[in-house]
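Dock flavin-adenine dinucleotide; give full complex structure.
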Amino acid sequence: MNDDRATAPDLVGIGIGPANLGLSALIDPQPALTARFFERRSRFAWHDGAMLPAAALQVPPLKDLVTLVDPTSRFSFLNFLAEQGRLYRHLIASRSGTPREEFEQYYRWAADLMPQLTFGTEITEVRTDGEELTVHDATGGVTGTRNLVLGSGRRPHVPSCVTARGARVLHAAEVMHRCPDTLGRRVAVIGGGQSGAEIVHWLLGDKDLLPSSLVWSTRRDGFLPLDDSAFSNEWYFPGYVRHFTRLSATRRAALLRTQRMTSDGVSADLLDAIHAQLYRLDALRPGHCAYRLSPGQELLAVDGGAGDAPIDVVTRDIDTDSVHREHVDVVILATGYRNSTPAYLEPLRELIPLDEDGAFHVREDYSIEFDGPPGCRIFVQGAAGHTHGVADANLSLMAWRNAVIANAVAGRSLYRTDRDSGTVTWSPAAAPHTTTPHTVTPHAVTPHTVTPQESTARV
Ligand SMILES: Cc1cc2nc3c(=O)[nH]c(=O)nc-3n(C[C@H](O)[C@H](O)[C@H](O)COP(=O)(O)OP(=O)(O)OC[C@H]3O[C@@H](n4cnc5c(N)ncnc54)[C@H](O)[C@@H]3O)c2cc1C
């Protein structure tokens, strides 16, 4: 056993996706903090199984690892472009969006600069020895720490009504790994979000993939666009998170329903592109691919498919309550991702209270309620949507969230988290200067100690 407890870092991160990579980038220049991060994959990858060739980043590239809290950091996307000698060309090429693949390339470049990252090491268990947390990996290594940051991501969600298994039934998260044989076959894509749309666009746009028939169905009432409008974007500002965390659980749940299409809708450009593809199919290549796009369909079953037998996709039309059965050869489930308590936390299970939906009780500084040794904390990345708002699952506030976490671990302000104001006043009664012109408090880092209330307040 390789026991690293004698040199326990201040912080251990589990999983190296964009979230913990960003935390590492903020900690890297801070001499007062030590950290180690572990990733089970052999090198950095960003949802590589879903990396479709034309997929574009859904946020501006300034929402990179660091820029929104430290624009001078060497880990910025702009610095990556400059080092690659691509600044000028990117400015023009990115008018049609930043490829998601290019952002993965950027993340990989940043990861290569950080010695505190360890790849090819799966964390299997987290325990406590009564004084600190011990993080156990699959090779028998143990690392002690007092601060753990869970960045192991969400899991692809397969609805329980899907009983058909095998190579012809797959989740959107694995299409690029399993490369389904769709040419000239009957294909169903289930799910009307961005992933479903990207897959439909990919199938229709590549002559080597074009199905003989394509069904795209969703439970949503339509193929709904991403709400990227100006004021909705302010739900993705730090100030809104602070407001949101102070609301009741019932109000928060209602707001998340209202705000859903700012996160789960399909980018308008992609909807336009699919619409144009279907027009061209009908106008120029009639008979090449019979398609049916059906919203308002609740998935009841995906079964059959043994050997070469057809797979049955059974749906209920929400408008008419009629049931429809479709025989297809390939089913792609673009049915999203879910949070779940990571298996490696099982030894601490009794020490971590969960709510009735199995969610953590997350405090304002992203630490969770934890009845472990005094001074030991567990922070979460992307598992606080129910307490911190709709932005939690995407890249928008990752740099800011990491600044909040780094400050909490350090016990003082390494990074300012209160710099920017918004246009919207969320809580007039709590804002004394509502009619004063908004000013952005400039520059100097105000010393800001994380008070006990801030770091322990239950949201
Ligand atoms: C296909 C797709 C595209 C997206 N595109 C955008 C976008 O354009 N804009 C946007 O704002 N948001 C986007 N999102 C949402 C969000 O930004 C991403 O899901 C983001 O990757 C979340 O980062 P993360 O680091 O929390 O988790 P992940 O990226 O899921 O990374 C978690 C990492 O933890 C590792 N891991 C898991 N368990 C262990 C373990 N036991 N030990 C060690 N390592 C472990 C995994 O291998 C993985 O590398 C997208 C999501 C998906 C699914």
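Observed: Residues 256 and 390 are 6 Å apart (CA to CA).
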